[in-house]
């Protein structure tokens, strides 16, 4: 309810713009939601498609490998191989060659039985030969032979990964008590397997990896090693969660990748496939571009509408309001009529007629009295403006002369510039109180350079938004420096604070000076209580008091009293409305 009442106080321009945006933004939001839901639907569909593709290729690969190692025992029980491995050293060369040729035929038949078999081998230690499908004149490589003997339970761990090569092996006899007579190994073609895996994401610029979880080997269909590490971490996380399959989005180098994973019991591995979302959502990007084009167009419409509204309604209305405010400030000025016969043209004519009538009344009754009062205020203000500036150049010369005060001299010059700018840039009789406070802070910073850390200043004046006569506050602070703090032997303290009281704003300046007595304070109050008395030497304090009374009335102005800090307390009363 409070927000609604606060909205009623908004300007007409803000209300119209709020209504326009209230109609436009829901349409943009609905469009954005539709676009996002479409992207989510496509992402889900592609994920399910990739998952089905992963199932198909992984199942076909599992079936092929399962068929290979289930038929491997039939080759191990070959009688020719058993006879050669047991009595090959006593055979004649002819018999040994005949046996080898028969074994090679079977090995060649085994190799051709599957596109995933790169080579089939038989290791015969007795004759120190490794028989390949096409050659047997090779010696037994001891390291390779020992690696092929590592698998003791083929059905639990069918694969041997050795020197970046993948094998399925079986020895005879299978007992590990004594050395085997021979061993047969099937070397799987990793290139063929990788080629098979790459078909999952080949058309979408992705990467697929078969990641063995209990050994440090993997088959990868891409070359992005950084992405591979992220995929490995995903597989580790899913193994800890005991998740068998699924899909999710991973991030790598600022890009999002749609990733599907599935666990294979046979390989004891995770098959992980990652595809850039940019490749998946390619079709919908076009609609997103159109959405942002529509958003830019909507912004352009809002800007055009606000410009038109501002030009046709807001500016003429603000001119009228500004003119009324000028009338409140006793500045009766006509509005230049640049409108036709519309509503604003009528209001401008009516306003000018009203101003003309007011001018006539003022000239007849009050103009002379106001002119006299403004003349006195200008005279008092002219006495305040040049106050204390004759000391600035002396301080600046002293800072420049010192070799260690160059930075302070530079800062002091900036403060002097700000001080002169405040005095000369604005000829208005009244300014915002916040601007007056900023000018006083500049003066305090100048004095801080002059006095160093000997004088502590506490500024706690949060001022309201109101207009006041120029130079009403800085002379009070200057009075504290000149008459109280400047000649103290010890450390000085200056406190500035303000607070509202009903329709009055109170500004206080206190110091801990020890040069003023209670009698002096009483005498100063007596002088302030006689506003029409003319002094031979008019001080800044008296001038400010006189100007405030001219502006606000006799009940406002300055009073002085004993400060809680021990020095003088100057209280300034300002009317807020």
From TrEMBL:
Give the Pfam families listed for this entry.
Answer: His_kinase (PF06580)
| Superkingdom field | Bacteria
Instruction: Report if keyword Transferase is assigned.
Output: yes
Residues in domain HAMP? 311-363
> What GO cellular component term, any one, is given?
plasma membrane
Predominant localisation class = membrane
Q: Where would one find the signal peptide in this protein? A: none
Any idea where this protein resides? Answer: Cell membrane
Q: How does it sit in the membrane?
A: Multi-pass membrane protein
User: Membrane-spanning regions, if any?
Assistant: 12-34, 289-309
Per UniProt, the keywords (alphabetical) are:
Cell membrane, Membrane, Phosphoprotein, Transferase, Transmembrane, Transmembrane helix
Q: Which InterPro entries match?
A: Bact_2-comp_sensor_kinase (IPR050640), HAMP_dom (IPR003660), HATPase_C_sf (IPR036890), Sig_transdc_His_kin_internal (IPR010559)
Gene3D superfamilies xrefs = 6.10.250.1910, Histidine kinase-like ATPase, C-terminal domain, PAS domain
Any one GO molecular-function label of the UniProt entry: phosphorelay sensor kinase activity
Q: What is this protein called?
A: HAMP domain-containing protein
**Per the UniProt entry, what species is this protein from, by scientific name?**
Paenibacillus lutimineralis
The taxonomy runs: Bacteria, Bacillati, Bacillota, Bacilli, Bacillales
